Predict the 3D structure of the following.
Amino acid sequence: MSYNIAIDGPAGAGKSTIARKIAKKMQFIYVDTGAMYRAMALYFIRNGIRPEEKDKISGICKEADITIRYVDGEQVVLLNGENVNGLIRTEEVSNMACESSANPDVRRKLVELQQLLAKESDVVMDGRDIGTCVLPDADVKVYLTAGSATRAKRRYDELTAKGVECDFAQIEKDIIERDKRDMSREVSPLRKAEDAVLVDSSDMTIDEVAEAIIGLCRKPGV
Ligand code: DC
């Protein structure tokens, strides 16, 4: 039986950084489910589909083959065989992913892939619905959050470090807007699973959060 750790929470809570760290330490596979929704969103953008064209999204998502490979321990997302890792972190893709991830056909397809990965390997999987829908029987479930100002500051620092000019107030506004959409959608909204442990990372370092989560894992030999 594989061991599964599910981490859910809003954008910018630190999920991917922490999940990657835990995976490395425990020699698990890190599954970034947001990247799968992003790769799918890229396919819609490339086909000239607008976020509100729900029927077109349902139809065309069958043509997008999303697969995952691991190169030097890093997840690589392939869209119809093409490595799209470097193309899915733009604002345009973020916005499309936020809209198109509400589509039940898109979700069905990606959830199937995620469940298969978790069945085959020990995983740390992060997303919005992992503890609630994808892996309801996960061994450890965490709902990782932080205040919107903290999350906006992290995003602001990340972009500024890359030399991207940005506006802090706008970033916070976008984060609050995206939270609202992720939490209020009809299909698999972002919410804490009843049996998930709530971790607020606002005043914690990455290492402190990672250690706290590892402390929740009890597996002989881990
Ligand atoms: O975590 P992220 O920002 O890379 O996710 C991109 C989008 O995909 C985001 O709007 C939420 C959505 N998503 C989702 O609906 N379910 C998941 N399991 C992961 C991400």
About this structure: The first strand starts at residue 4 and ends at 8. Residues 11, 33-34, 37-38, 97-98, 101, 127-129, 178, 182 surround 2'-deoxycytidine-5'-monophosphate (CB under 6 Å). The radius of gyration is 17 Å.
